[in-house]
């Protein structure tokens, strides 16, 4: 949205705005999309060839979304394009002059990617002429109202619906952490509009947010475990299995049957984890 705002408030407003998600295409197709190709340039190339997105954005603006995912080989060609203001089709010989504003967006720490040798430092500095840092959506809940209403209106128009959100639903959206930022908000609203049976989206939105929160909790737990050593992970998993069995079984004998092991082993494991059953072993 910021990229479109920049475009609409620039002198290029009457010319094309061309977005591309750099993470959405494999390396070979990404290069062809950005720079274009001549006929016969590669297997599957069209009979007439194709101009690239930089040419389509001539005198306008091109948005390179998820720039941090750009393969290193394409980064080198992008740097040359930015420095020389020209592109060359795949399979082509003649350079083609371009004139467009370039906006790059990422949720990655590009300097960290530079240190990891996954992003070119010269390209980083070439792109970093004017930097806008956007706080995550969870840190600006006041924006959720406008964004939710904007995308709800868009999806109602796209799918011919008249769905709406109550104040209660807006409050629930504002309390959710949105680890996927605005993209996740868009996906949640789109799902609710398409799948909701009622015009008021409160019920389906509550279900979607609960499911998303549970997913985020599981992912956080998994990431926390990954930071531990193998022995500590195994210890925590073993204790969790024992606690689950204790909730279902009242004795060590029943626990042994449930977990398909010996009663003596269950007793040793309970002692190891300082756990005890509700009743004496039978």
Structural description of this entry:
The chain is mainly alpha-helical and 282 residues long. It folds into 3 domains: 2-127, 3-Layer(aba) Sandwich (Rossmann fold); 137-226, Helicase, Ruva Protein, domain 3, CATH 1.10.8; 230-272. It has helices at 2-8, 27-35, 53-56, 72-84, 110-115, 121-127, 142-159, 167-175, 181-195, 202-226, 230-248, 252-259, 263-272; strands at 17-21, 61-65, 86-87, 96-97, 101-105. A 3-stranded parallel β-sheet has the order 1-2-5. A two-stranded antiparallel ribbon has the order 3-4. Strand 3 (86-87) and strand 4 form a beta hairpin. Helix 7 packs across helix 9 (181-195). The termini are far apart. The mean pLDDT is 88.
Write a compact overview of the structure shown.
By secondary structure, this protein is mainly α. The protein has 13 helices and five strands.
